[in-house]
User: Fold this.
Amino acid sequence: MAAQALPNDEPLSLASLSISPNTGEENQAEDTVVENSESPREEESASPSSPNESDGTEKETQHGNTPEQHNEPDPVTTGKPSPAPPKYSMYPDLHDLVKERLGDDLEYSFRDHDTGTGIKNEHDTAIMGCFLCYRHGPTCRRWYSNRIAVTIREYEDDSYNVRVYHQLCLSCWRPARPTIEGDDKLLYADRVAYHLKKWNNIHAEQPKRNVEPNGQHKKKLCQGCINGHCKIKSNN
Assistant:
């Protein structure tokens, strides 16, 4: 008996997906910035000629991964689950700027071993910086944020550290780590020194920066919001 031919399956059609571009983060909150009429920094695509822009001059350590591993394509599945991407980074090389602002009043060391043991004080606040994602090539996405969530921790042994939370790239939905340069380094140091002094009952002026809001804060893209460490109010 001759074999009966089976009918061919009809091809499936996939609906195209579109994602509206991110508009950046809104600038508001405690120990925040003062608005002025300066133009906001525009979101721009990363140029192929600037792959090193995502590497800050400061040393960066990450929870659960390294900077080099973080923005690389996912490895081929080998049967073992891939490690979760890091949610935040730490910047120990900015400790010298913090020491300058503490002066002779206080002496602290930076604890690069991140732990929840022995915490004396903890505070959530925000800094500013630039994000650069290369996961989908050199033109994946680049954006500046006026609201990068951070958590400052003081420990019983006169040490401290600062978690700087990542933000998700709207193109590939993977976390990107911020680059902190220029005046953004100074804001980081001012915020940290202010709270260390405050916890030791030493008077200090609340740090401020003149910036222009650069869009509505996106909670779904902020690792600080996702992990309960961003104090900004937004429904997005």
